[in-house]
Amino acid sequence: MSNEPAIATSESPAYAVLPRHIGVIMDGNGRWATAQGKPRNEGHRAGVEALRRLVACAVEFEIDYLTIFSFSSENWTRPADEINAILGLMKRFIASDISKFVAHNVRVRILGRREGLTKAILQMIEQAESRTAHCTGLQLNVAFNYGGRQEIADAVRSLAQDVADGKISPEQIDESVIEQKLYTANMPDPDLIFRSSGEERLSNFLLWQSAYAEFVFFDEFWPEFNRDIFMRTLDEFSGRKRRFGGVNP
Ligand code: IPE
Ligand code: IPE
Ligand code: MG
Questions:
Q1: Is the full-model pTM beyond 0.85?
Q2: Which residues contact 116 (CB under 8 A, 6 or more apart)?
Q3: Is 140 contained in some domain?
Q4: Quick check: is 89 in a domain?
Q5: How far apart are CA 44 and CA 27, in angstroms?
Q6: Which atom of ligand 1 is nearest to the CA of 71?
Q7: pLDDT tens per residue across span 55-71
Q8: How many structural domains is the chain composed of?
Q9: What is each CA distance from 238 to 40, 215, 224, in whole angstroms?
Q10: Average pLDDT over residues 89-98
Q11: Tens of pLDDT along 190-208?
C-alpha cells in the first residue's frame, strides 16, 4: 500500500456501478520472472509490490470487500523452496504492512484451512486478524491454504455433525445455512473476479460464492498490475448487464 493518504480524490474517476466485493486471482508471477531471465521467486517478490498497489486501489475506490488468492490448497505441490519463499514473503508482507492496514482502517481476515499449518504461520494469521479486528474500512480477505471444494466439503462435514448432534434437522438445510459455514459467512458474494496472466479459469477459487460473479481476464502478469489495469477492469465491470437469471428491466 502506498504511504499516501488513500482516499477517493477528484482525480479518481467515477463509475456507473462499483463492485462491492472483488475477488482477485493474482497469477503469472513465475512467468513474469522467467520472461526476464530471473528466478521464479523474484516474480513472487514483485507480486507482493503489485499486491500493495491493489490494496491501495481498493482503498482509493472505497471497495468494501477484497478477496485475494494468495496460496491455494493445490500450491503445496510446488517445489519446497518455492513454497518456502512464498510463505516467507507473505509473513514479511503481513509483518511490515500491518500498521499501514490499521492506519487505513483495513481489516484483514485469512480464509482457508488452518489445520496442518505451522505454529509460526498460525501466530501470524492470528496477529493480523486481531490487530485489525476493529477496522471498519476495506475488508481484506487473504485466501491462504484455500480451496473452494475443500471449503464446501468442510461446510458439509460440519453440517453433518450438527445433524448428528441434533442441532439442526436435514430439512432445515438450505443455501443460507450452507453459506453460514463458509469462510465468507456474512459477506456479500463477489460481484467481480479478475485474473491476470491470460489464464481463464477459477483454479478452485470461491466456487460457491462466484455463482453470479462477473469475470474479467487480462493478459498482463501479476507483477505488472497497476492502477490503470484496475480502472480498466472497473470500467469493463460497470458496462456489464447483470441479470441473475431474470430479464433486463
Ligand atoms: C501466482 O503466480 C502466485 C501463486 C500461485 C502463489 P504463479 O506462481 O502461479 O506464476 P505462474 O502462473 O507460474 O507464471
Ligand atoms: C491460482 O494460481 C492460485 C493463486 C493465484 C494463489 P495457480 O497458478 O496455482 O493456478 P493454475 O495451476 O494455473 O490453475
Ligand atoms: Mg500460476
A1: yes
A2: 145
A3: yes
A4: yes
A5: 10
A6: 6
A7: 999 999 999 999 999 99
A8: 1
A9: 35, 12, 23
A10: 94
A11: 999 999 999 999 999 999 9
